[in-house]
């Protein structure tokens, strides 16, 4: 019975966290239009 209670409390906490993050919405700001370099450019 303790395991079932612990699982229910953990599930409720996880659900509350998800709802909190969802309610907060996306972060403000914008992404950079410049692509990230994945390789080092060669110098002639």
UniProtKB/TrEMBL annotation:
Domain of life: Bacteria
Region Disordered: start-end pairs: 24-44
Name the record gives this protein: SPW_0924 family protein
Species whose genome carries this gene: Streptomyces piniterrae
């Amino acid at each position: 019975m303790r395991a079932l209670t612990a699982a229910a409390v953990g599930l409720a906490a996880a659900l509350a966290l998800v709802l909190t993050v969802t309610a907060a919405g996306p972060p403000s700001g914008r992404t950079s239009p410049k692509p990230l370099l994945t390789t080092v450019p060669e110098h002639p």
